[in-house]
């Protein structure tokens, strides 16, 4: 009798191991094949108008090519980069939302939810800081982090990723076109994804057209909003500056969302090391901001009107509150040092003093001014980017 029980127990254990193995990685079956143009789309020689250099964060070892971006496009939309073949990069970065997500937290593999809102992919070649906490400074470093993340895509073992893609017939010729051989490696996967992301340049908005013609295409309300946004009496352009309106890519700030943050952003990366980073998050680009709701790292605001009202009356006092949001005195913010690394810069209070940086500033905006700011931010939408076929899903 005891022997029979042991055999049953052993069988149950074996069955559990088999089921767990199946859960860990779903075999590739019934793979759909991407549909691609015979001649690759042009990702390299685009007319970027007023943008300047949209690829300043591009290493010489991974220059953008049409073939490399084509491979990156397939990888970006391929759900087989996830552990159970259900989640792609594009699942959380949707073209019709300027490659953001329209949910507070995105749904990852096994229906897990990300703790932060998925940021829009806006001119990533013009940035040198990625994720809300700026934990990556180069796209080649950033792109595989979501693939390995246990909530997002779950494929933690990069050896398994390489093996998995080698089993898919359509990848060998794409890797050969992009890199000169059919060899599939994690480094090449990262390089191709990075090329595709860098090619996503937003430069065809009403604002971009307006820059070339002294904003003659703007309505009275839009012009009022633009003038208000770029006024030194307002804190907007202090953070959202440059062609990409993102604070030069490595800026981060505490904008007084909470008295005490449950998610400390950069402070959580540097836990128990430097509390001056508590509540600091990356300053995002405002390009396409009208279509990338919800807003902030936790998606707490659903509309631009709510965002503006936060800055108008809702900023909370915090020891790390950005100086541009205080009534006066110093503050703390993060700027790039030219090497891709962020460094904290502390502006002291006049005459010295403690880390009490003053009370949050009230902007006292009128209803018309609020509407004008919204109208201006709507001019930053690049509708062409959201319908450009070269950035669309090749598996449809």
Please describe the structure with a list of short key phrases separated by commas or semicolons.
single chain; 396 residues; mainly alpha; Cytochrome Bc1 Complex, Chain D, domain 2; 2 domains; two-stranded antiparallel sheet; 14 helices; 4 strands; 32% helix; 4% strand; disordered N terminus
Your description of this structure?
The protein has a two-stranded antiparallel ribbon with strand order 1-2. A two-stranded antiparallel ribbon has the order 3-4. The protein is mostly helical. The protein starts with a helix and ends in an 18-residue tail after the last helix. It has helices at residues 2-24, 66-77, 89-92, 139-142, 145-148, 158-166, 171-179, 186-199, 206-212, 220-229, 236-239, 266-269, 304-314, 367-378; strands spanning 252-253, 281-282, 331-336, 342-347. Strand 3 and strand 4 (342-347) form a beta hairpin. Helix 2 (66-77) runs antiparallel to helix 7 (171-179) and helix 13 packs across helix 14 (367-378). The protein folds into 2 domains: 40-201, Cytochrome Bc1 Complex, Chain D, domain 2; 235-362, Cytochrome Bc1 Complex, Chain D, domain 2 (Orthogonal Bundle).
């Amino acid at each position: 009798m005891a022997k029979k029980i042991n055999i049953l127990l052993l069988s149950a254990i074996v069955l559990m191991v088999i089921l767990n193995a199946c859960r860990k990685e779903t075999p590739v079956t019934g793979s759909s094949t991407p549909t691609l143009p015979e001649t690759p789309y042009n990702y390299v020689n685009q007319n970027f108008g007023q943008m300047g250099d949209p690829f300043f964060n591009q290493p010489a070892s991974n220059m953008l090519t049409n073939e490399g971006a084509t491979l990156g496009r397939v990888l970006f939309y391929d759900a087989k980069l996830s552990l159970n073949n259900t989640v792609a990069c594009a699942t959380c970065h949707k073209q019709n939302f300027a490659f953001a997500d329209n949910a507070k937290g995105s749904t990852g593999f096994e229906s897990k939810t990300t703790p932060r809102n998925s940021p829009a992919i806006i001119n990533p070649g013009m940035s040198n800081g990625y994720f809300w906490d700026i934990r990556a400074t180069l796209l080649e470093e950033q792109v595989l982090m979501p693939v390995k993340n246990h909530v997002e895509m779950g494929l933690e073992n990069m050896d398994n990723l390489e093996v998995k893609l080698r089993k898919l017939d359509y990848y060998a010729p794409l890797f050969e076109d992009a890199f000169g051989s059919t060899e599939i490696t994690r480094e090449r996967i990262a390089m191709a994804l990075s090329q595709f992301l860098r090619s996503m340049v937003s430069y065809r908005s009403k604002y971009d057209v307006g820059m070339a013609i002294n904003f003659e295409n703007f309505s009275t309300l839009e012009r009022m909003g633009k003038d208000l946004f770029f006024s030194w009496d307002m804190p907007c352009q202090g953070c959202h500056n440059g062609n990409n309106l993102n604070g030069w890519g490595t800026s981060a700030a505490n904008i007084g969302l909470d008295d005490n943050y449950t998610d400390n952003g950069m402070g959580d990366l540097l836990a128990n090391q430097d509390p001056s980073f508590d509540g600091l998050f990356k300053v995002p680009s405002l390009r396409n901001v009208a279509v990338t709701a919800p807003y902030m790292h936790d998606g707490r605001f659903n509309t631009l009107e709510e965002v503006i009202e936060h800055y108008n009356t809702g900023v909370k006092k915090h020891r790390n509150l950005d100086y541009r949001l205080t009534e006066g005195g110093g503050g703390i913010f993060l700027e790039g040092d030219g090497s891709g690394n962020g460094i904290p810069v502390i502006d002291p209070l006049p005459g010295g003093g403690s880390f009490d940086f003053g009370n949050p500033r009230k902007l006292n905006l009128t209803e018309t001014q609020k509407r004008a700011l919204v109208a201006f931010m709507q001019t930053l939408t690049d509708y062409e980017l959201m319908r450009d076929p070269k950035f669309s899903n090749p598996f449809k």
